[in-house]
Backbone:
């Protein structure tokens, strides 16, 4: 019996080591999100001024939902000016950028917002529930939502101007003629919508 245990313990470690080796080899950016194509989880969080912001209130607009933190250096520091620049460029075309600060202190996050002169709405996910709903495992992570509130793309890492345009332009184009003033879809939904 003792002889069997001597071999069983090292042999049982082999699958665990193999799983870890596979996990360390996979780039998290290459893992597709199961949320793409599904309705975005609704939430209401407080902005830094204390006002509630409901994701649902932006239905009818293209939404860029960015999860960030002030301690996320350098990626969040690289993408903050990109998000602000593109928010200013596209907001008149029916786009809103919403920043979701996670695992941070209010003071550090407010300093970050001031440092980059961010004018798009930013909220705090104090208890982490929204981050869990969206499957966030690191920052920054950004979701691109269509006018109907469906997640159409997810980007892991710092968003660049190129990524922003590549994801947003088609959503703005398809939604401009496909939504009614109330934000309801004016065309039937299907596999290609």
Residues:
């Amino acid at each position: 019996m003792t002889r069997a245990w001597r071999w069983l313990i090292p042999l049982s470690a082999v699958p665990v080591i193999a799983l870890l080796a596979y996990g360390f080899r996979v780039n998290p950016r290459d893992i597709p999100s199961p949320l793409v194509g599904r309705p975005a989880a609704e939430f209401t969080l407080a902005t830094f001024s204390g006002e509630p912001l409901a994701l649902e209130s932006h239905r009818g607009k293209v939404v860029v939902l960015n999860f960030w933190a002030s301690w996320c250096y350098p990626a969040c520091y690289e993408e903050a000016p990109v998000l602000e620049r593109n928010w200013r460029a596209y907001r008149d075309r029916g786009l809103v950028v919403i920043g979701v600060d996670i695992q941070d202190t209010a003071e550090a996050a407010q300093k970050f917002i001031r440092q980059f002169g961010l004018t798009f709405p930013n909220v705090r996910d104090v208890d982490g529930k929204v981050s869990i709903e969206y499957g966030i495992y690191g920052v920054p992570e950004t979701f691109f939502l269509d006018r109907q509130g469906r997640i159409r793309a997810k980007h892991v890492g710092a968003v660049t101007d190129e990524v922003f345009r590549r994801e947003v332009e088609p959503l703005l184009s398809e939604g401009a003629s496909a939504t009614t003033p109330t934000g309801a879809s004016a065309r039937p939904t299907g596999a290609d919508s």
